[in-house]
Amino acid sequence: MATLITYEYRRPGKPTTEFAEWLLLDRPDAKVLLLEEYTGPEVRVDGVPILASGAPIVWYVFPEKWHDIGRFHLADGAHTGWYTNLCLPVQIGPERWVGNDLFLDLWQPAQGEPQWLDEDELDQAVRSRLIDPATRRRIQNERTMIDLQVKQGAWPPPVARDIDLAQARVLKEAQ
Q1: Which of 1, 114, 115, 120 has its CA 20 to 30 A from that of 150?
Q2: Angle at 20 (CA atoms; ends 15, 25), nearest 5 degrees
Q3: What's the pTM value of the predicted model, to 2 decimals?
Q4: Residue 173 belongs to some domain of the structure
């Protein structure tokens, strides 16, 4: 059986949210988690729903990297795309993980062109000193690296393309 962990999601200036997620794959370079039922509000990009309440999410965490990726779905399990959070490297403990969001996100729909989101929120966080100038530069470096991989057709990374919802559920039951 897979291991249940608590994923603590922090965003400067916002309340902390906790998710109970199943750790399905635990490699040194990538961790794969499954959240069976998202309980937050519906998420939309340009008016189109990309994540529904009650929907599953497959999360990909990359130790020491300044991003993580969610494979988003609707409540019926239909895959909508990949949501890359720019974040501090996730703090990984035996039963509790902590992710610190840095506002800027990349939405890559299953069909269509990727787009960066929440740039205005990042700018406001910098102006409000929730994000310091050095961290802002690191965020920009991460964005540049991801943009290069998007242009090369190499984003999201293979693990995020290879382990879909069906495979994640098989991994959950196999452990």
Answers
A1: 120
A2: 125
A3: 0.95
A4: no
- Segments in the chain below pLDDT 50: none
Distance CA 75, CA 154 (A): 28
Q: What is the rounded CA–CA span in Å between residue 83 and residue 49? A: 13
Residue 172: inside a domain:
no
- Structural domain boundaries, residue 49: 3-167
Number of domains observed in the structure of the chain: 1
Cα distances (Å, whole numbers) of residue 120 to 36, 50, 103, 167: 31, 20, 9, 36
Any domain includes 7: yes
Q: Give the model's pLDDT for residue 19.
A: 96
Residue 158 lies in a domain: yes
User: What is d(CA 101, CA 122) in angstroms, rounded to the nearest whole number?
Assistant: 10
CATH label of the domain that carries residue 10 = 2.40.380.10
Half-sphere exposure of residue 17: CA atoms within 13 angstroms, side-chain side: 12
